[in-house]
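agent: user wants the full assembly modeled, not chains individually. Plan: 1) parse entity lines 2) check alphabet per entity 3) run joint structure prediction 4) return tokens. Steps 1-2 passed, two entities, 762 residues total. Proceeding.
--- entities ---
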Amino acid sequence: MAPTSSRFSRRALLAGFGAGATTLALSACGSNDGGTGGGGGGGGTSLSQWYHQYGEEGVQQAVTDWAKNYKAASVSVQWTLGDYASKLSSRLLSGSGVDVFENNAIDPASARKGLYADLSDVMDPVKDQFSEVALKPVTIDGKIWGIPMITDPQLLWYRPSMLEKAGIAVPTTFDELLQAGTELTGGNQKGLFFGNDGGAGVFSQAIAVAAGPGFLSEDNKTVAFNTPEVVAGLTALQKAYKDGAMLTGSPTDWTDPTSFNAGLAAITWQGMWALPAMKKALGDDLGVMAVPQVGGSGKQAVLVSQWNEQVAAKASNLDAAKALAKAQWVDDAEFQKKFAVGFGFHVPPKTATAAATTELQDGLAKQVVDLTGQWGYTAGPFWAPAMGTALTDAATRMLTNGADVATELAAAQKTCQQTLDSLAS
Amino acid sequence: MSSSTASAPGRGGTSPAPSRPPGSGTRPRATAVKGSRLAFWVFVTPFLVGLVLFTVVPIVWSTGLSFFEARGTLTPTRFVGLGNFAHFLTDDAFTNSLVTFFVYALFIVPVTMAVSLGLAVLVNGLPRFQAFYRSALFLPVACSYVVGSLVWKLALFSGLPSGVANSALGVFGIAPVSWLGSSPYWWIVLVTVRLWLQVGFYMVLFLAGLQRIPPVLYEAAMLDGVSAGFRRFRYITWPQLRPTVAAVLLLLLVAAFQAFDEFINLVPTNPSTRPPLVYLYNVALGAQRDFGLGSAGALILTAIMVVVALLQTKFFGFSAAEDRTKAPRRRRGGVSA
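--- prediction returned ---
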């Protein structure tokens, strides 16, 4: 009895171990990105919808509730923590696990390789309802690959009380802006907060726009940012950095208003999404302005980023996935309004929806919407990530190493043109 | 010379078989435990499958992909031959990432070596509470690099006057420093976080090396008048630790090559602090998603690592260590003869 029992136990143990190891291996193939929600609906069709993690509370619950109430299919919401772009990219490449997803960087390579579903049939009949600046990032080779969800204006915010205390008027020129930054610096307060990198990431790009040329030519064939005006603007930025006018090394970066709300800087670069948090912390002690014109041939600038709803080309049910994306981001104006102003503040890309969103019709929100309408700039899908990296690298070397601005900008232009040429081939 | 092959058991050799210990059979497999073969495969198969699926296949696929254009796709698109490899010869960003590695390795390797060896010698010499200090110093190894980086960034080396480091500087009247905003300060942050996270591990390796040094050597040295202090370390401890030093050096170099987490969390966009792995991550797995180029870069980086490891082994490695420990004996022998 004993030997038999012993042998059985050993085999059972081995079998159990093998099964356990297999289960572990299989479970490792899944993801633990923040959990899923939703479900319900029906029709026998199941769809997976992906979101990145929004900073504002309540967004996850809102999209989960919407998914539960959707009747044409059972929708599971994947709320993705961490590096959303990489996780999404790997799922799109593997061709499974994601049907409908949001994306803020639609790129020509992925569109041409067939990772995205062509949504022209959904968008062509309604594209006149969307703002022009919102359609640019989703249009590649004459086709529309995504439905704009929200547009996010990014611009300059300031503390009027701090300027008043220092006896400084609201800057109207670029030189005045950087001068104000220097004068507002003292004690534990810095004049400017353009990000922990001193503005190499986003503000250098704002300078390229405010100096006139933007990133690329209208036909997306030529890199446009290497002009004397941009060199002059970046040289001025370099001097402000060297003079210590900028907040750097803050625990939170520019996308989070905590440092600005805490009084660590008088003027900050920030997205409109942070307006509710800033209003709550600062009350009326808050003002907003576009980036002043740089040089004689420039114009004021508001950078516009965007999230878009897309469908995976290898979606489990392409028609159902397209129907879901359309129902949510073309048809359901009430949800679009709630999504735009219910948590952080964004601008609905559909002009009628934006006009009907009362929260955007007065105060600072209206100022931002008006400034965006007047000076809003978006680069479009041909401004590839590699080009953004090249320009950011050049600006970082200018600021942190004191590298020659003209030389660095010329090198960045060369790299960007090579990338642009490769996209055209 | 050939007798060893001819007399091998079971090979039908004509030479007399070497004597066997009494009771040893001619069929060694007969002594195997029943079911051990099955157990072997049950244990090994899951890991073998994992190794093939997640290591061998990706390496082979990546090697193939490196000869093709593959942007935004894992499927080869257009054959470019050695074009992807040639790209790195003219890519300043890649060259700069290698420079970053060398600068980083120049700091982290010797400093880790010195600190972990010093701690090991101190802990080894403790008469009491050795286990406590060993555990306490080893504890940071359990912390992830991401967590360590965040603690360093948010608390210790925040650029704000309220950060721990800046508060300490403030006591001496020194203005706050933007630690991650200018050189060489960011190297202090990058080196110290890794030092804190890895020095305990290498200390344990050195402790193991110290504890395998025969006490008789120290007794003999004492009789020869080398009782304690630096001379004892120089003439007894250090030569005996050479194999451990060689292993630690190799591990430290490989770890420096693999530096990623602290760089991506502390200085994510700074080109002056972008080691090779971060650079390749941006090319292949980041927003660029250029898998052909990324694969070629990964192969080049692997080749560089292999060459560095071989050179290190040749000049400082195990065989060199053995030769050096033998060399004095030969010299002594020559003199006495």
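agent: reporting back. The longest helix of chain A spans residues 2-28. Chain A touches chain B at residues 7, 10-11, 14-15, 17-18, 21-22, 25, 85-86, 89, 93, 105, 107, 109-110, 112-113, 115, 188, 196-198, 200-201, 247-251, 264, 384-386, 388-389, 392-393, 396-397, 400-401, 411 (CB under 8 Å).
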